[in-house]
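Quick one, tokens below:
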């Protein structure tokens, strides 16, 4: 199995090195990832500037390719130019921070996985919930690999995207289990603090918070909060199919 490994935290991030180490157990891994951190850049692509690339030593066994672009750029360029052949699987992560709820819309990690699905490949996004302690990346990688193996055993079809989130755990601590759950669609409570810089100029600091409601305890956010590994199948078809018939009848007649 040939695996393309990418991320949005940059090719030198600890999460991608940890993922590389465990994914070698199931296949040949090619690392192509952004040169710099691209967190929360969503599904942007580069159109008006060149995509510069350079080799980067990811670990003692692998030299990857750093791309001066977005996560989606990395996947496009990898498949079109840089890979020896089309990969059998694309893995994005392990992201430093959870990608649950509406965060999947902003996430560069998920965007890379969705780009792979656009191009007809099976893909998996991996993310780790962070807390105040330093994360155990090796432990998170082992749990991620377990989820990847489960998904491959079940069957991830070309064009499908699976989002996996790992709870924040101490070394050796096990999750409560794995939950297949829907994406939480609760919005953030947007708040901005108005401040002044030393020269008296006004600026704003985002201090928004996410508050889970009791009727959303069957979601990725709630299950991750409760210590479960979460798996959410995603789609990129934004069409409201349930509205097509009524709109056609009203507007096309």
């Amino acid at each position: 199995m040939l695996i393309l490994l990418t991320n949005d935290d940059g090719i030198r991030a600890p999460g991608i090195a940890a993922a590389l180490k465990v994914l070698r157990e199931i296949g040949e891994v090619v690392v192509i990832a952004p040169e710099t951190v691209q967190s929360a850049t969503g599904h942007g692509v580069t159109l008006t500037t060149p995509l510069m690339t350079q080799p980067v030593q990811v670990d003692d066994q692998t030299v990857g390719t750093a791309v001066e672009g977005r996560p989606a750029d990395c996947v496009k360029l990898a498949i079109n130019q840089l890979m020896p052949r089309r990969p059998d699987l694309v893995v994005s992560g392990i992201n430093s921070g959870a990608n649950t709820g509406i965060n999947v819309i902003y996430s560069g990690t998920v965007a890379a996985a969705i780009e792979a699905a656009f191009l007809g490949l099976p893909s998996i996004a991996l993310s780790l919930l962070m807390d105040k302690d330093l994360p155990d990346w090796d432990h998170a990688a082992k749990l991620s690999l377990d989820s990847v193996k489960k998904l491959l055993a079940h069957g991830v079809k070309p064009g499908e995207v699976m989002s996996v989130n790992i709870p924040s755990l101490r070394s050796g601590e096990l999750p409560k289990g794995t939950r297949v759950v829907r994406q939480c669609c609760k919005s953030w409570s947007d708040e901005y603090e108005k401040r002044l810089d030393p020269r008296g100029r006004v600026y704003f600091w985002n201090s928004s918070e996410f508050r889970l409601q009791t009727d959303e305890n069957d979601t990725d956010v709630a299950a991750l909060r409760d210590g479960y590994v979460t798996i959410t199948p995603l789609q990129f078809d934004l069409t409201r199919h349930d509205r097509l018939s009524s709109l056609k009848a009203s507007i096309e007649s």
